Amino acid sequence: MDMLLMLTLLIGSLGLGMALNPTLFVEAYEDIKFHPGLKLVSNVLLLLIAALMIAVGFSSYTMWSMWVIALGGGLFMIGIFRLVFTDQWINIVGPFISGRFIRFIGILCLLVAFILGYDLF
Length: 121
Fold this sequence. Notes:
single chain; mainly alpha
């Protein structure tokens, strides 16, 4: 229950930041693109968040548990792909990175956080 609350707050905070200030995330992507250390740190953080989502899904028995596990598993596979094929990932994702796309992802994160929070309380 505590881990689900932490995950909900994390997803909601990131979603709010993406929805209200997408240029920060676009600029961060531009920095990450040219710095190998930032690529590694961002990949490790993604893998940690995905592992947290998988652990939360298996430890909580809510009606959204399987969706949390599936989302975490998908993020974990993306993280592994980013870690192994970093340059190809940048070429694939590069055309999609814009303020409008980041705002859309932020709204999706807020929706997921709202659903998880509603189920939590």
